Structure formats: structure tokens, C-alpha cells
Amino acid sequence: AGPFTMSLTYFFLSFFCSFLRVKEGSMTAMGEKNVINFAKVWLFLLFAIWITASLLGSGMGITSALGVLTLASFVASVLFLTVSFSRDDQEAQKKRIWKNIKENWGDYFDLIKGLLVLMCSPAAFIYVVLSFLNQCVRRFFCFPCSKKHSNDLNEDGLPAENKDWVTRDARLWLEEFKSWNLTSVYSYAIYWGIGIMTMQVLVAQLTLLFLSWLIETTANYSLNTVSIIMVVVGLLMFLLPPVPGVPVYLSMGIVIVAIGRESLGLVWSIVYAIALSLVLKLLACSLQQKLIGQSLSNSVYVRQQVGINSRFIRATKLILAQPGLPIDKVSILVGGPDWPTSVLCGIMQLPLLPILAGTLPVLFIIVPTLMMASFTYLAPLEENDMELYPWADTAATLAAALTALVQLAALLSATKYLELTIKTRGDELDAMPIDEEVKKADDEVKAKNDAYDEASKWHKVPLCMKVALVLSVLFMVVSTYLFLLLQGLCFVEYELTSTISGDLKGNALNLVRPFGWVGIGSFTVSCFFFSIFTGWAKKESSKYMEEKVIVKLV
């Protein structure tokens, strides 16, 4: 996986630099462009987490490489942008830049800051420690060349540099951090951690275990029986919201090819597995859209949760409602997450057949994914101490690389066309009718959220609750770093072709190594402290709303 890891690294760097390239002449446009592109880079990194979870169990070493690359890229992107914004030619425009950005993106700032806290806290801590050591050298004149500070107060009201324990730059960062709505930022950091834990452990690892058990169990069944079992199990997995489709295709590539190779031959067994996977995907889309999405379309709560009145969802509907198979429609149907995309089509009550037709290009994802699994299964097969398929190992590596790139391209393409629609078809989006029932529900939720935010502002939070929330964040950071950066130390090497009876000695819990239990324990403790804090915050927000009602009545 070494060369592939390096290729991914270079791909990320080129992607990052191209996003940070600006063509506008004004400094304001340049600054805004950098920040918006910075957000796009982080969206790309979140896609990498999704792909990492999807490819778990492929056996090619890709998942650990992607995990390390993703986490390192999160930290590197922050440092890169920090350097970018420290240039003198942008300082004069900084206030104006941030004013414009806050007007357009202010509602998402705490969400982004929460992700920043989760991913970059260790790097920020190291920076503050180094700043402290640097300042100690300056204050005590440890070296003749140590910088001498003035005793005067700074114009911005900060302490004189010779009386501070960190450098001026670090103090500016700390003051900015203290100005954040820390309750909201810390809460979002924990929610991000829960999401990553769900994808990297609960979904990815449990799905891997279940599918490996299924492969082992069906090894001696007939092709027809296995086909029926795989379709039923695949449908059930597709109906679970967090489960991606890729693990299902991987299982098809192993189970069907292993059993059908003798009767159909290698090539036709792969073709049969691809066809069966496509039928399964279309059938799952139909059930998700009609059985789940359309059934839930009458629920105000469900429509509210998907953000039916948001510009993002309205842009999605505008694209998917187009006749024919334009590239933007196909990009969303193929590149979007399996369950949410199909269910959303049902909630928006879109016709089924055009949606299924637009889903057919999912073959470009199914084919390399399934072939990767098939070649991985074929690689170790031997007869008379001779490899039956000596080319399979190389072919599996190439198919794995192609799978990751195709998934990423599909996700980025969907994002690109959604953004383009929001920018260029604003009049059509504004002309779309608002769901009044959802708007009313949104107003009620906003009132509750405002009360929650007001009651739980950081300066109003008692010390014991502050400690609980901070501890929750710290334990969540530990858990996230363990599962993203040290995944190989958290779980034993286990693939779809592995067996619980052999590789795990009959005990599925042997999948988790000691560091993995530390990560799971940290996650559990984090959730415990967070539940204590949220319980207190909800009680305080209820009191606040009651007091507000009493004041209005008086």
C-alpha cells in the first residue's frame, strides 16, 4: 500500500493547492475564496472518511492509509490556511473578509469550529506549549540573542509581552478562542466524534464481521441458494441508514465467485455477480424510495429533519426532477450516499422509473468494487503448491485504487453540481414553494434552540458542568485519534475473506485489540459526561422558556 499511499498524498496536495488557487484581483475576494475553498477541502476529507469506512475489509491496506492521510490532512489544511492568512497583503482586508463570510456562512461557523476542535486539538495544544517555552526563553533572557519585549501595553488591550506567558501570536489565537460560543462548539465536536465512531467502528467493523460470517456460512451452499440469501441480506443491509453499498458489493464478489467459479467459470461468475449486484441495488432503491421515503413524506417531522425547505435540498429536487439523464442528475444518484439519496427521492415524491434509470451508471462503482473482492479471493488460491491466479494480487490492487478514485469522483461530482445549481439557478430555487408546515415546525424548534443556547452560554455554565463538557471533548478526541490514526493498533488485521472461527479463534470480540478497547472506553466515557451536561442544559433551557412566558404574561 506504500506507493498507493504516496499517490493519495500527492493527489490530496494537488487537490488542495488547486482549491486554494485564486484568480480574483481584489484582496477581499481572495480571502473569501480561500476560506470557502478551505471548507471544500474539509468536505473532501469527510468524503475520505466515508470511503475509508466503505472499503474496510478489502484487504488491500487502503483503509489504514486513507485514515492516516485523512487525519493528517485535517491538521495540515489548518496550518496551510493559517500561513495563508498571515500574509501582510491580506491583513488590511481581514475584517471586511470575515464580515462578508459571516453574513453568508455564519450559521455554520460553530459546526465547523467543532470539527476543528475535534481534529486539531492536539496540534493546538502542542503549539501553545511551544509558545510557552518560546516566551520563557524571551522573558528570562536564556540566550544573548533572545528577543527583548516592551513594557508597554499593546494597543489591542493585551498584556505587555514581557508579562505574558505565551507569545503575542499565541495570545491572539487564545483570545479568539475564548470569544467562541464554547458550549456550542464543544457540543458539535462531540457530535462529530459520534458520527466518526459510528462510521469507523459501529458500521464498518460490525458490517465486516457480519459479512465475513455470512461468507463462511454459505461456503457449501448451492449457487441458487446463495444468490437468494445474498439478495435478502443485501436488501436488509441497504435498508439500514448508515450502511454503504460497497461492503455488499465486496461480499457479492467473494461469495458468488467462490461458489459459481466451478459451474459458470471465472468470467461468467463475475459477470453474474455484477448483474446480481445491479439488480439488488435497483431493488433496494425502489424499496427505499417507495416503502420508506414516500411513506414518510406525510410526516412533518421527517420533512423537517431532512431540511426540505433548505436551498441544498431544494437544489437537489430541482436537479433530480429533470427529465432524461443529465450529468448532474446522474452524479447525485450515483455519488450520493445510498440510503439518504433514495429515501430523499421518496420524500420529495419523485417518479420511480426515471430515478432508477439515472441510477444505472452505478455500474461504474459496482464493477471495480466487485472485481477487487473477486481478485482478492482468487489471489491466495493454490493447486499443487502453485498459484492458480498469479496475476490476481496485482489486479486486486489496481481494482482497489480504481474503486477509491471512482467513489471519490462520484462524491465530488455530486457536490460540484449541487453547488453550481445553488449559484446559477437561484431564481428557480426562490420560486419553489415553501413547505409551510415545516416552516412552522422550524420556527418552534428555533425558539427551543435559542432558549437552549441562551441558557447554556459558557459564562452561565457552572464549573462542574464545564468540567463535564471539557472532559467529554477530551475523551472524544482520544477516541477519534485512536480510530483514525492508530486503527491498526485498535483492531486485528481482518478481511472479508477471514473467518471468525479461524482468525478470531471463534470469538468475535478478539477483533478488538487493547488500544481498541481504550478507544471504545474513551468514547463511552465521553458520551457519559456529555449526557450529564445535556441533561443539565435541557433543564435550564426549560426554566428559561418558562420564565420568558411568565415575563410576557406580566
From TrEMBL:
Stretches that traverse the bilayer: 6-22, 34-56, 62-87, 108-130, 189-214, 226-259, 265-284, 352-375, 395-415, 467-494, 514-536
Keywords: Membrane, Transmembrane, Transmembrane helix
Protein name: Uncharacterized protein
Keyword Iron attributed: no
